[in-house]
User: Which sequence fits this backbone?
């Protein structure tokens, strides 16, 4: 692993010296409810951990500060959720990448499924403008899409003190495609009173570390394919 170069620890002359040969890696998350047992920052923490792993695995990268707010309107019925909506996310990502033209390219690592559509639109527009940009998100089970076993395991690996294991309880475990029309029309609370889509019962830190390792390998491979494709 290489030492992680962090933009929040650099001055502009230091960035200027390496930017033409470096990829800027930006974690993109959200601030939204994750059931009665996980903190609002799950998606941002996962995105940051994966972006940091990417930066540690490639010496030609610089890690940017995280984007901590996303499109989370489907969770609005749960107090504490903070959302800026799809249009704002798309616009923010477009302008952010445009402002990073000094770098050789930008990798947007998103940890929130609700950002998928605006991320895809932003990347498509930026590529039409001739900018080098990659958008990437981790994969997941359609029956374990929010605050279930996967995210709980990962958080137990990343920040166990933030997980209220005594409050963990199952939610709606139907496939995401089955409940998606209701989610879009009425939000998560219409299908899950506790905000969980999945079951965190058998979550553990060991599984979380394995999931993070698999996601990191996928991310590194995706960036390698993209970087050599020109």
Assistant:
């Amino acid at each position: 692993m290489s030492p992680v170069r962090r933009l929040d620890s650099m001055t502009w002359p230091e960035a200027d010296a390496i930017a033409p040969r470096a990829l800027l890696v930006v974690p993109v998350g959200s601030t939204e409810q994750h059931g009665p047992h996980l903190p609002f920052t799950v998606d941002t923490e996962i995105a940051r951990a994966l972006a940091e792993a990417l930066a540690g695995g490639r010496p030609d990268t610089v890690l940017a500060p995280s984007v901590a707010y996303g499109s989370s309107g489907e969770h609005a019925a749960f107090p504490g959720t903070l959302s800026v909506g799809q249009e704002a996310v798309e616009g923010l990502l477009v302008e952010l990448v445009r402002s990073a033209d000094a770098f050789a390219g930008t990798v947007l690592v998103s940890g929130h499924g609700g950002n998928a559509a605006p991320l895809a639109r932003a990347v498509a527009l930026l590529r039409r403008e001739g900018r080098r940009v990659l958008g990437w998100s981790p994969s997941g089970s359609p029956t374990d899409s929010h605050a279930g076993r996967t995210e709980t395991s990962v958080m137990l690996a990343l920040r166990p003190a933030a997980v209220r294991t005594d409050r963990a309880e199952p939610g709606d475990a139907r496939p995401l495609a089955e409940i998606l029309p209701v989610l879009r029309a009425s939000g998560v609370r219409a299908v899950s009173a506790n905000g969980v889509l999945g079951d965190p019962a058998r979550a553990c830190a060991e599984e979380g570390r394995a999931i993070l390792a698999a996601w990191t390998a996928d991310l590194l491979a995706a960036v390698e394919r993209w970087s050599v494709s020109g």
About this structure: Strands lie at 23-28, 61-63, 105-110, 133-136. The chain has a mean pLDDT of 97. The CA atoms of residues 6 and 63 lie 5 Å apart. The longest strand covers residues 23-28.
